[in-house]
Amino acid sequence: MKWLQAIRQKLPQHKYAINAKQLGDDAVLAWSNLGYWDDAMSSYPTACRQLANQLAQAVALTSNDRLLDLGCGQGASLLYWQQHYRVQHIEAVELQASCVIQIQKYFPQITAIYPQSFLNLKHIPFKQHFDVVLCIDAAYHSNLNSFLDSVDNVLNSKGRLGFHYLMLSEQWLNLNALQQQKYKWLLKAADVNLEHLMTASILEQTLQQHDFSDIEIRDISKAVLYGFANYFQHLQQLPKQGTGLDTFKIRMTAKLCQQLYQDGLVNYVQISAKKNA
Length: 277
Known about the structure:
- By secondary structure, the protein is of the alpha/beta class.
- The protein contains ten helices and eight strands.
- Strands 1, 2, 3, 4, 5, 6, 7 and 8 form an eight-stranded mixed beta sheet that branches.
- α7 links the parallel β5 and β6 (198-199).
- It starts with a helix and ends with a strand.
- Mean pLDDT is 91; it is low at 7-12.
């Protein structure tokens, strides 16, 4: 466990910060998610766009939607919504102050961006509710009930929600207490609380309790977890690979993704749902 627990002691800038340049994205508004990998030889920005696009398609995003992007990172998704989906009204919430400043400078077209946790949406003075709320590769760091409680405050009636989460497989139920404790430590090092994770049936029930319907839970573990780990292995074979804390964090993330996928006990899922009227 030492190799993964060391992450918390060596995090650069912010615990959710990532050096996108080392992964292959040197854009000013860079991507910072695990990506959706159809092909191990895809570029990092292409895989990140695919993860965003899969989520947008799941909620049927249109140019007329009032969109709120939660945990938008360095801002690549905001540019993507505008350029690819022609969304006119885009607001965002991002915890990293440095990212907010960067986005305000290089993407002035954004309607508004707030330096806040997406668990505190009720404290943000939004002028109207949103038709679509998206959260790419970030919601699993929080309690699902807390996340849904927060989103409830800003989503329109019949509004659509799309996000990524981690889900316990049915095999998980067969583990003994010691095996489960091992996974608790493993996930804690990646800022994921095992006690917040659920099986598919309980996850769906939780969404229903928050008044959501048309729920779709799609397991994309292979495309994301295996894909990212495989891509990192490819990076390792290239010359001039970086060293230091940023590289260490990326390496540990790849190792975690590989172990989660190989064990098959915790799945990476895409979730879409519609708020009931």
